[in-house]
Amino acid sequence: MKVIKVLGSGCANCENTAKLISEAAKAKGVDVQIEKVEDMAQIMGYGVMSTPGVVIDEAVVHAGGIPDKVKIDSWL
User: Fold this and answer.
1) Tell me, what DSSP letter sits at residue 67?
2) What is the pLDDT of residues 9-40, one digit of tens each?
3) Within 13 A of 45's CA, how many CA atoms are on the CB side?
4) Would residue 29 show up in a list of annotated catalytic residues for this protein?
5) Cα separation of 51 and 56, whole Å?
6) I need a surface site. Which of 9, 13, 21, 31 has the fewest CB within 10 A?
7) Rounded mean pLDDT of the chain?
8) Are the CB atoms for 7 and 58 separated by under 8 Å?
9) Which domains does the chain have, with CATH numbers?
10) 11 is catalytic
11) 73 Cβ neighbours under 8 A, 6+ residues apart
12) Roughly how many angstroms between the first and final C-alpha of the chain, as a whole number?
């Protein structure tokens, strides 16, 4: 199981990013656990300055803007 964290303040872009990742994982049959991280200290701890950010297995893979489907599929 992949642990995927979506970093952000809970804005629409962050919510949409989490939804897109969830849908892509379901379509590919990949078991994921999605966690939303809204605490700014934790977000800054990952070095993410613009949200939404995406962390997979504790590695930052994306920051700023909604990732496209091709990018999300490559993570899974």
Assistant:
1) P
2) 889 999 999 999 999 999 999 999 999 999 99
3) 9
4) no
5) 15
6) 31
7) 95
8) no
9) 2-75 (3.40.30.10)
10) yes
11) 24, 28
12) 10
Q: Please pick, among 7, 14, 55, 72, the residue that the annotation labels catalytic.
A: 14
| The pTM of the whole model exceeds 0.85 | yes
Stated length of the chain: 76
Catalytic residue among 3, 11, 27, 44: 11
d(CA 40, CA 70): 28
d(Cα 30, Cα 11) in Å, to the nearest integer?
Answer: 26
What does 23-62 look like in DSSP terms, one character per residue?
Answer: HHHHHHT--EEEEEE--HHHHHHTT--SSSEEEETTEEEE
How many other C-beta atoms can be found within 10 angstroms of the C-beta atom of residue 28?
A: 11
CA nearest neighbour of 56 among 18, 12, 9, 10:
18
